[in-house]
Design goal:
By secondary structure, the protein is an alpha/beta fold. It folds into 3 domains: 12-127, Cobalt-precorrin-4 Transmethylase, domain 1 (3-Layer(aba) Sandwich), CATH 3.40.1010; 130-238, 2-Layer Sandwich (Methyltransferase, Cobalt-precorrin-4 Transmethylase, Domain 2); 241-285, no CATH class. Helices cover 40% and strands 16% of the residues. The chain contains 11 helices and 10 strands. The strands form 2 sheets. The protein has a 5-stranded parallel β-sheet with strand order 3-2-4-1-5, sandwiched between helices. Strand 8 (197-201) and strand 9 (209-211) form a beta hairpin. The structure holds S-adenosylmethionine (SAM). S-adenosylmethionine (SAM) is lined by residues 26-27, 96, 98-100, 103-105, 128-130, 174-176, 200, 202-205, 230-232.
């Protein structure tokens, strides 16, 4: 195990040779923390996803600094130079266009390689669309699954939709506005229209909007409307005792019938399926 303590909080920040992962606002520029601002002003170099976005932040907070672009197209080529700079005791801040770097944004690989090179990595926490949407939704927020953007490939997408439909934890998804309606209809097919959901649009911005309560109501709300802005979706988990989704229910019923046709008694088949799906026997029994 690689146990390493960093002295960052005792010394003045930023420290030489440290990589700082700095969260930046997801809309409202006032969400930049004092600590983040201090780091961005005083590091040797800021590695940013899009220099134009970071310049907006610098202009709002009236400072300049050295920028280098670090995005999904060039990050692999840039990592060796950044690691060298860190070893040469430069301090570097990594930012994305918005929110927490490395959450559906570049950064993961740089952080991994930095750690492998025994470089101190410190995260300056701050805005993240996923958590902002989750805690605003009122849905269970202590246990959740973050899936980011669903895959486009049909088979992978269907697999994940099925997992979401069966999961008892809250799921958080990112989606682009022009694909929102398609995704909502898919979620309805897999989870049923009754499943609780919250679509958060333009979080922290002037036209922030939260649309719920269930999938069908959200579909109806967006019908005939052009969806604009940035979207994060929070879907309630399944309530295993009495709210199996329509889809999962159909699947279970089918399996129950198959087991009975194969010769098991209703009681035996229910017991088997209850154990397999972590449900009570009576839930399965009553489906028959
Ligand atoms: N790293 C970012 C974070 O910490 O939230 C996420 C980056 S990901 C490339 C961008 C996606 O995050 C958007 O397509 C949208 O789904 C979500 N997002 C970002 N800002 C948002 C906002 N203000 N309101 C709602 N969703 C947002």
């Amino acid at each position: 195990m690689n146990i390493k303590s960093t002295s960052s909080h005792k010394n003045q920040e930023p420290e030489s040779g440290f990589l700082y992962i700095v969260a930046t606002p997801i809309g409202n520029l006032n969400d930049l923390s004092y600590r983040a601002l201090n780091i961005l002003k005083n590091v040797t170099l800021i590695a940013c996803e899009d220099t134009r976005q970071t310049k907006k932040l610098m202009s709002k907070f009236d400072f300049t600094n050295n920028l280098t672009s670090f995005n999904k197209y060039n990050s692999f080529n840039k990592i060796p130079k950044i690691i060298k700079d860190l070893k040469d005791m430069k301090s570097i801040a990594l930012v994305s266009d918005a929110g927490m770097p490395s959450i559906c944004d570049p950064g993961e690989e740089l952080i991994k390689v930095s750690r492998l090179n025994s470089i101190n990595v410190i995260c300056i926490p701050g805005p993240c669309a996923a958590l902002t949407a989750l805690v605003s939704s009122g849905l269970p927020s202590s246990k959740f699954i973050f899936e980011g953007f669903l895959p486009k490939k049909k088979s992978e997408r269907e697999k994940l939709l099925l997992e979401i439909s069966k999961n008892d934890k809250t799921t958080i998804l990112y989606e682009s506005p022009h694909r929102l309606k398609k995704l909502l209809n898919e979620l309805k097919d897999y989870c049923g229209g009754e499943r609780a959901i919250e679509v958060s649009r333009e979080l922290t911005k002037k036209f922030e909007e939260h649309v719920g309560n269930n999938i069908q109501e959200v579909i109806t709300y967006f019908e005939g409307k052009e969806v604009l802005g940035e979207i994060t979706i929070v879907i309630n988990g399944i309530n295993k005792t009495n709210q199996k989704s329509k889809f999962a229910k159909l699947e279970l019923k089918k399996e129950l019938n198959e087991l009975i046709t194969a010769g098991l008694s209703l009681s035996e088949a229910s017991k088997y399926l209850a154990k397999k799906n972590n449900l009570t026997k009576s839930v399965i029994y009553n489906m028959y």
